[in-house]
């Protein structure tokens, strides 16, 4: 649980400084500033008789106790705002869907409540009478100052509802669990740690606002005017959020926290922690090992969930695993730009053709590596070109990927007629072994079945000695040998190393902009790579041309057009070692190299 709490805390910290939070930061800053205006005394303070006598005598009272300096109550508004925010986030994220469903309320009701609270607080800052109404529910609390911070607490409640959508996998795990009503100690710990993580930067910002209000003379002398400005700003923000005006601002800003969020929330450790939070069934998958050449019991098959769209089903209807009891199911995780998946698909398609009417159902779960692979049109087009005719589920949020604790493209899971996972294998190869186990399960399901001859696919070790898939992005690149080191999100001039490239190394030359998961070419952009394989391929996007040189000789020029597509660079009869250089026209984007 400690690891889970740490992931939640770091995820919350990143969320609180992400671009989607920026529109509410001015409100948080001003909320920590001038509080309720101090009441004015009803009349002049009566003089102390002893002091009057002492002044008349031309001296002072030596026996008088030290006079206490009047001190204004400490402004606790920043803490009240953050306390309300944490409470509203934790409570409504976990229980909001359940409450809304039970009451039959609209799904957007919580957002509307948050907007209404923001408007009320704004009106309270402008009109003191409204603020007194907002503070009445806190009148029973003995401490007077706490009562005066009631409106700030209400503001925190509203902000907690409005900034909730700005998050990634951690919040996804929390909201899914809340939506399903399956809340346990792990989910509560993750929720609280995430809320605390988001609260820390916001509290620091609110405290900064309080400090400015207390130290800057203009804030003290113009407190009333500043309260009116803050109120107007809150009302304006509420309307901007209601009519989605803030989206333009958020889109214009670079997503400067994307890499940090991916590193914290989307690494192997995080996925292992976040998967299984709301479905214990997948924990049984740990009882089995990858590629063991026998059938084992690996627990009940997790559900195919969170699917954006189904392809190759009647009317696009989803496939329910529970409805497939009595049939053997093969689930194949793949993604269309992955050359390893493309080489695996003919085997899967052959099994589908040979055994569909003998009791086998094949389901392709398309779990994307890149954003462009989430486009349903792209997937449908590529599936058609690749000959995929069995049902395909678009797992764009990787919910099913997480349910199966998957980590590889491609990956195959065999489920028997009773709904139990019996075998899984990651990567390419083991085709004859997998087909033999499919045949065993079909025979177990129907001892009288007459199976056709095996499809005869060879079980070659296709990956031996071959250069591995190589991602072109600062987040996942390996074997980079150029100078200087890659500079993320900034256009930079690069050069090849003076001593050349060894096997499986690559380098850039010319001008490039490198991001977490792609390289974008600038003037004189070149890329060199030494590889070993039968063929080399690259995923490219944009408009332009790519010149290919192999061992110093130009071999072809490719025209690149449109969305990311896999392009064949070399194609030899046998595997060999070669030096590849690519010359790009400006604007082309490169995502990943694959080898066959």
Q: How large is the radius of gyration?
A: 32 Å
List how many beta strands DSSP finds: 15
- Helix content class: 25-40%
**Which blocks of ≥5 consecutive residues have pLDDT under 50?**
35-46, 48-71, 143-147, 458-462
Q: What structural class do helix, strand and pairing data support?
A: alpha+beta
Calculate the mean pLDDT score and round it. Answer: 77
What is the percentage of strand-forming residues?
A: 15-25%
Shape: globular
Euclidean distance between termini CA atoms? 42 Å
By DSSP (H or I, 4+ residues per run), the number of helices equals: 19
Describe the structure.
- It is a single chain.
- This protein is α+β, with helices and mostly antiparallel strands and about 600 residues long.
- Helix content is about 40%, strand content about 20%.
- Strands 7, 8, 9, 10, 11, 12, 13, 14 and 15 form a 9-stranded antiparallel β-sheet that branches.
